[in-house]
Design goal:
47% helix, six-stranded antiparallel sheet, five-stranded antiparallel sheet, single chain, 997 residues, globular
Amino acid sequence: MTAKAKKKSSVTPPRGQSTLAKGTFFDRYGVWIYLFLAFFIPFILIFFAFKVMGVSPFGTNQILVTDLWHQYYPFMVDFQDKLQHGGSLLWTWKSGGGTNYVALMSYYLASPLNFFSILVPADKLREFLYIITCVKIGLAGFFYALFLKITFKRKDVSITAFGIMYALCSFIVGYYWNVIWLDTIALLPLVIAGTIALLKEGKFRLYVIALALSILANYYIGLFTCIFVFLVSLGYCIVEFKGWKNLLSRFLRMAGCSILSVMMSAMLTLPAYFALHYTHSSDNTFPAQFSINIGSTADLGGVLEGIGKTIANSVAFTQPTNKEGLPNVYCGVFIIFFAILFFFCSKIKKRERIFCGALLLFFMLSFIIRQLDYVWHGFHFPNMLPHRFSFLYSFVLIYMAFRVFMYIDSVKLGSVIGAILGFALYLGVAASYFDGESVKLSPVFDSNVKADPVLLSGVIGAIIAAWVLLYALRDRIPRIAMIIGSCVIGVGAAIFVLVSGKLVNSVVSQDGNNAFYIFMAVVIVLLTAASALLISSKDMNQNHQMTKVVLSVLLLIVAMVEGLFSAAAGVKANGVTDAQSYPLGGNDTLACVAKVNELEANTVDLPHTEVNKYHSLNDNALIGANGISMFNSMVNKDVTAYMEKFGLCGWVASNRYTYQESSPFTNMMFNVKYLIAPYGAYLDSTHNDLAYQSGNVKLMQNRYYVPQGFVVNKEFGDYNFDIATALNPMENQNELFRRATGVNGNLYQFITSSSAKADSEGATITAATTSSFTYSSSSGNEGYNIDYIAPNTGVACAYLSGNTENVSIRVNGSEVIGYYIKRPFIMMVGNVNQGDVITLHFSMNNSTNGTVNANCAMFDEGLFQQAYKKFTDSSLSAKEVSDTHISGIINAKQSGLFYTSISYAKGWKAYVDGVETEITPVGNALLAFPITEGTHNIELKYTPEGFIPGLSCTLLAVLIFIALCILYPKREKLFAKLKSKKPDPVSETPAEENPAE
């Protein structure tokens, strides 16, 4: 070839090939642009939705709602404090009287992104949480697009569109406040990419690492991932069946690598496994009779109704479930259309189409049938947030949609028509079951706008269907018809955007202006014009390459629009909260905590600080103070039961117990030294002194504090808490007081009610017993009053339980405090004088008749002083206190039980004078052990149950993985070398017997 010919060939590519030369920037890095967009677009859409809602730093709100308010953020505060100040990650004193931190971290805090909080100032942690929430959602889109790239070798803009819809599916935007799940959900596409690579090519690295990270980030959602991996593996082996030997090889490969991943996560999951045995969830039982979650009757009709409602909840412009409701299965209208087209695509194997359809049906039945739901959720029923595995349904739908898009060039006209008819049937089913109650309209619409989400979804589907139909006809109609068709579709899309902008209330701007929608419409019109020009060009649109590009760009635009509505709907459905009132008292409350640290700076002890009226259910972790309140799914159910029966605000089924200002005996037995009153009000001035005040927030110091660890009579540990009732905790305390001290008397002197009356004449309340009252009314929200007359001057306490959530405590007609008592507890009434009228005023919670249990009692100060002297005389003088170690000296005046208010967990070891002593926890809840009279050295040590073997498993797995990474690429050479070292059977044959001779 001549130099001239070479030069010409280098600048003029052969006809039919891309005009982009190999090695250009876009050719080399274009796919990373698409991957970046799959991250950036969901990130910016959810970020923007939060910004519109005034989330700090763009306003005074925060994203903390529901359990993110009560649990995840307070635990993150403690976690950041440990990272920045060197605390142990094995145990924490900030919650629950102490708790297993490895177990807590395994469920709440194991996200790798949380470790970056070490770089963030403590007062900016909420903004950090805001950012990483957006990052996690963005990563979900990025990893899904990467899954498509790795598995199907796709490098075009379509991977961005499908990645966006995974990141902004209704499961993620409805449950984003459950930030602890987002990491594992985001990692799922990488796990599945690794699964297919392992099954198809034997590549194990991605699978092992991704699955291990998924389980480590959150073992609970990791369970769903593992089940899904099994289902995907099963499907792959069915679709790509190549004989039983090959199947066995794949099975062994998957089993080995899965075990390796589980071993890698064992440092967290093994301690969590042991801790789960003591939680309330371990008490759940398999449903004996067939029952359903969705549907009115437990039969075939009810199941079909459940399927219909699930389908209705998959259309666009519906409200995502954020606490209770239908499964979150929406992931894009265009996804639904392509998923239906998937079943008509002959290029995709029938076995794959059948398996995917069966998988979707199995998921639907799992949503509906309680027995399947029970198994999916780890053999228990979840408390709120139903159908927690429904993101897998969206994953499969998006996969199906992408699979058919891969073969869009080969889709026949008949297949498109079949898909259009199928989509129409889908809309008909959705319309039949949309009721505005179980299937709700998206909150982005004005309440006075009667928008039809099924109709709007139909319009989006029609736009996509029209383009696909146009593409299927590309070789059958003139080019001018293609141009006219694209223009009609584009103008229709622009009109739809403008009309939806008129319907929607403040999706992207708080003042409700339509600038965004006008901008979007203009962009669509311009893109339509550009598309028409590209299609009309014979040179650029050879073989309709540019027509396909236009279709891909259209999908991207639709994904962005649907993603925007989905993000806005999720944020609006969940709402935001005021950052300035969290924690209650703000900086003044934190100043009180700082004062406690200052007062205790030279003290070696483990005192508790409590808020006298809780604002979150983990106030101690939130404000950084050691305490006994805790809301934690990993809590020991026996500890919760003990706290409830002792008189704290406990709830076994909800995994929580919290403190509100209680009796002096409660404070003494739980080593409460300081009380913070963020409302500025405290009731017991007899036993507490004002130690500090910042603004309206007051810090009280308990005058009768007993150090952590003191001797009680051994009979205290013999009390059978299993037979104790939670309906009369003051009587429980009377019995415990007698057993602990040996003093015969009642610490609480009960007062007989003087009167009981209703607020209105149409209702009645009468005393059935001294502590039980029956009520009746025609209104379910009637108010009632129970009066008591104080027999002497002193401190009074009260207790009230029933179908009521709020009580007002009044003395002589004036309210002294109001309590939220959804879960009852011993309430502090405060100081009263002889003859004062104490009134418990309460309103029923939608209950017309029933019974309430109420008690009011005077606190016996003389008996209390005897207990205080006995306990302080035999209390621990601590020498060292850390997160996992306590040591000190005690001079026990008599033999008995060394009692602490430390929540017991297996892993604690007690040593008396260097000899290990058996721990006999009180009520199977609080750490205690026998002790003899005299002076003793006491030592307590803690290592979480299962942590050492779990850590060993993790280290071993890492070493095995490294060895495999080194040796696996060299396996053929190693096998060849081993084979060459084997003796040659021919050469060893004696000469006279050698046939060659």
